[in-house]
Amino acid sequence: MSGGVGPTAGGGITLPSSGAPMPPLHPTPTSPTARPHHHYYLFSIKQLNTLGAAAVLAFSTTVPLSEIAFAVLLLPYLLVLATLAFPQRPGKPDPSAPVFSEGLGDRVRHAVHTAAGFAVGAALPALYILDGLRSGDTTGVAAAAPHAFLLSAQVFTEGIAAAFPGKFSLPCRAAVAVMYSARRMFSASEWLRQEMEGRDELGRAPPVAPRRLVAGKALAAANMVFWGIDLFGFLLPFYLPKVLRKYYLGGSDREDDRSRAREQQQKQLQEQKRGEEGKKDS
Predict the structure, then answer these.
(1) Mean pLDDT per 10-residue interval, the chain, length 282 residues
(2) Whose CB among 1, 104, 174, 209 lies 3.0–4.6 Å from 117's, allowing a Cys bridge?
(3) What is the DSSP letter of 237?
(4) Is the peptide bond before 171 cis (omega within 30 degrees of 0)?
């Protein structure tokens, strides 16, 4: 959710100088479209909240072991990527720097994307799970829990990567969003399949309220559509190639704009010279 901290020499957490203002206490973890933060504290309140939510769901026996294993094994895999495939060396781009330009339109799109992702992926599923616990709809809770677990684990993992900018490079942090989004597509499809089976026919007590049947189907379908567009419409075709290009070739959107402007100026000068030469010949 579907960019950080400033670079440090030793990969640790930077401390503000005595004359600098204090950074925000609880900055938001990075995401593909997030604006950068220059400081990030490991195990902040947001980190502890997401870790607690993931732990509660994991120990509630509603999350399959395969999803828990995926979240646990992803951390050492990121260390392997950061060590062998995409190390953060001097001269590589700052992982906290924005991948795309930060114009007004980009900030508006980022705000809309963040609000929609939070509502569809976190807030509404959390209310659905809490209402299911209150009403005794254990089947609906078990269907939605894997998706909520993966989203909480993603936020926690993104926070770890953001807290160590000297260790986790830009492609490593992009891999977190891509891999979790791909995994959530499977959990959302399974959630939608279970909701479509019709829990009124299972003979469970107490009976499931019709509003929960409609809400479960709508939430599962909405998450399938939203994260599918985020993965196949943004992360894979635009965000990941841009990240790899910045990592291997360097540069930024502003530099690209400047190079295009220089090329246009050179073309205009060449056309003016040709026009002047044509006038002299005539």
Answers:
(1) 40 40 42 44 75 90 93 95 92 79 75 89 93 89 94 92 90 95 94 80 63 93 95 93 89 53 74 73 64
(2) 1
(3) I
(4) no
